[in-house]
Input
Amino acid sequence: MDALAQEDEEQAKKRAEALRVLKEMKFDEETRQRAEKALKPQFNHRTQIEKIVKQLGLAPNGDIAKLWIELTKAYGRVHERLFHERLEVDETFRTEFARKFDTVIRAVVTQLEDRYTAFHAAGQGNRRDASGGGCEAVPARDSGSAAPSKIFLR
Output
């Protein structure tokens, strides 16, 4: 899954035009470089999460995405406590973190499981290894070439 910030052609043209105008206005190279960096699409947790949930078939503005984004805000708070002190898992922790985390993980795993099941079904022609267990890499089709185009693990 690709969750990197991407730029479309129209954005690139606008950025190039802005940089051209800055050059005409006699801004120095360092300033134009800072402007170019600021005008590029930003890569942050929110946009990354929205792209991932969309690729999983979930709504990028739905409950799962919102919970996931909310959980990322806890990142800095993790280091606010002293680790030598024992913390009890109380209802506040369950409400503010554990249930949200479980909900997000369950949704993502369910979506991945659906994708894996479809992927696995496509490879039904594959076989177990001689011992009856484990995984055996099997070419998706025998094209006669030395390197198979796809490999399914079972």
Remarks:
- DSSP finds five helices and two strands in the chain.
- Confidence is low (pLDDT under 50) at residues 126-154.
- Residues 3 and 123 are 27 Å apart (CA to CA).
